[in-house]
Amino acid sequence: MNSKNGAPNRLINEKSPYLLQHAYNPVDWYPWGQEAFAKAKTQNRPIFLSIGYSTCHWCHVMERESFEDHEVADLLNRYFIAIKVDREERPDVDHIYMEFCQALIGSGGWPLTILMTPDQKPFYAGTYFPKESRYGRPGIIDVLHQLGELWRVDEKKVLSSAESIYTAVTTHKELPNASVVSSQEDDFRPWAKVILEAAFQTFQESFDSQYGGFRQAPKFPTPHNLTFLLRYAYDHGQAPKAQQATHMVRTTLDAMGQGGIYDHIGFGFARYSTDQHWLVPHFEKMLYDNALLAIAYLESYQVQHLPRDEQKVREIFAYVLRDMVSPEGGFYSAEDADSEGVEGKFYVWTPQEIHELLGSEAGQLYCRAYDITRDGNFEGKNIPNLLHTEWTALAEEFNLSREELSLQLEEARKVLFQAREKRIHPHKDDKILTSWNGLMIAALAKGAQILDDTTYTDAAEKAVSFIINYLYPKQRLLARYRDRDSAHLGYLDDYAFLIWGLIELYSATGKKDHLGLALSLQKAQDELFLDTEQLGYFLTGHDAEELLIRPKEIYDGATPSGNSVSACNLIRLARLTGDIHWEKRANEQLMAFKSSLSTHSAGYTMFLQALQYALAQSREIVLAGPIQHAELSKMKELIFTEYRPYTTLLYQEGTLSELIPWLKDYPEDSKQSTAYICQNYSCLRPVHTAAELPSLLL
Known about the structure:
Blueprint: H1 17-21, E1 29-31, H2 34-43, E2 47-52, H3 57-67, H4 70-79, E3 81-86, H5 91-105, E4 112-116, E5 122-126, H6 140-153, H7 155-172, H8 189-206, H9 223-235, H10 240-258, E6 272-273, E7 281-282, E8 285-286, H11 287-304, H12 307-323, E9 334-335, E10 338-339, E11 342-343, H13 351-358, H14 360-370, H15 391-397, H16 402-421, E12 428-429, E13 432-433, H17 434-451, H18 454-470, E14 478-482, E15 485-489, H19 492-509, H20 512-529, H21 562-577, H22 580-592, H23 594-599, H24 605-615, E16 619-624, H25 630-641, E17 647-652, E18 674-679, E19 682-683
Parallel strand pairs: 1-3, 2-3, 16-17
Antiparallel strand pairs: 2-4, 4-5, 6-7, 8-9, 9-12, 10-11, 13-14, 14-15, 16-18, 18-19
């Protein structure tokens, strides 16, 4: 069933854009499933597992070099059962085999390549392979031929190797669920501060003081590192360490915002920078990066009130709401780095193009501002950036005020954007993932809180409605929607990220249905994913496909882990509801991963934010009265104006006590608004006007 004659392979029946990209390969691809495993066992052939995603540049390169090549396809089809997996649809499969890859070669990435027995036990792993061996990197031709022959002539040796690898990875690696929580060690406080300090020290030592970010190249935004540092600064007041933490965040946010990693014409951030300066991105844009970066800029705006942070947030949301939202309200996943087969082609410019579109004078101004030169800064062309722009000098050079300069550059941007829209666009991965939508819902809801913009509330609520209508049948979340098809039982991240979004949306709107759904989903998450023996949450539900290992993740990589976000959610739900059950669950979640946090605390910065929240003095604010009352709106605006990362906000509008019984103690008066503030288990006097509130919030 190969496609040597142009016929599609089995992937043609899939919904995943990534799998469909490979539907006309001459490789006899199978999707992940029992058909492939049964065939491998019946024919006694090893499995070639290839995992990637639709906007992965090197996935495209490997496809063009190898999977579209008939010589490679012949070897694959002769020796192996070939399985293709979209990591974004099956993060459970991806997580398991990425762990094996990292154990075997010390690193990982995508495309992920695994050779394994018919029983799904790996015996060889790698990432990108060229067709032919070169520069010390083995070629896929050599790998397939040698290992295919080895299986044929000495199958027992391969099986023995696979069994040894499986035993080593499953028994000797340090897994979060490897240690049982002692019933006598139920307090995280004695060790939490040590771990937080260790993480801060790691960031101090790895900070790039010249260009921002951490370590050298490539550089990834990793926004939860920045939001951890903002909380660290908040916790340490005026201490020098607090100033250092704020400086690291400020320098990094400014450098990223000025660099080529940011799309200065159409807005939004690319995945990462290939260089130390944030100039040359890997051009794909991911929904999760833009959601998490919007949150980082929003929190920075609360801290320092810099207009450039607000502008960046509004531009990110403008990009998402323009290009990444479906007609029904769900958010698409990503946009590719490549167009017309060339990485970055859609985004780069020559001076001639700029001058033809803007005219001589405006073109000269734009080129000077955005580093557009004849020599170029990327393969002979130019990525617009502001890394070396001196605004005062530029305004003086062109005899403009700063305001006039900004207006002229904005008019130029609009012209260039319209021209760029006529280019061939990069591929858009239009599948809608529950987890990533949860992150964008959280970001938009925080935007609505801090910027007081109902546009963001409306978009977030529309996305929630989309998930309820299309991805929540029979009270069980599903992970992916595309082309009128909803599929895959939801993973831990789907529940945790959506709960996060709903909590933020409740904080923005005061609508109890959002909080009610968050609590309902948290209860379902505990039933489906909780490890009742060793605590923490598994990535897959107990009703999911049984795989080689039931994975449990805590590492906060490109996205935070479901366990880390759950730790934050549980603390917030405990503070919101006052329910001892959630307090107990939050404490158990914090204790479950002590050993992992102790090894490399800077790798778990979202989880560390849960520790920071748990260590902080509690502050709960109840706003009682009609939600749309003018005075209550002013109070809400005051609360969100400043950075208050550990403040819990509730709205007693007359019905929330049905959900949270203790709110009956805070009477609601339809004629006036009242703010009740409780801090560190004691309450201050209620106030009825926004003018009285600031002195109580210090």
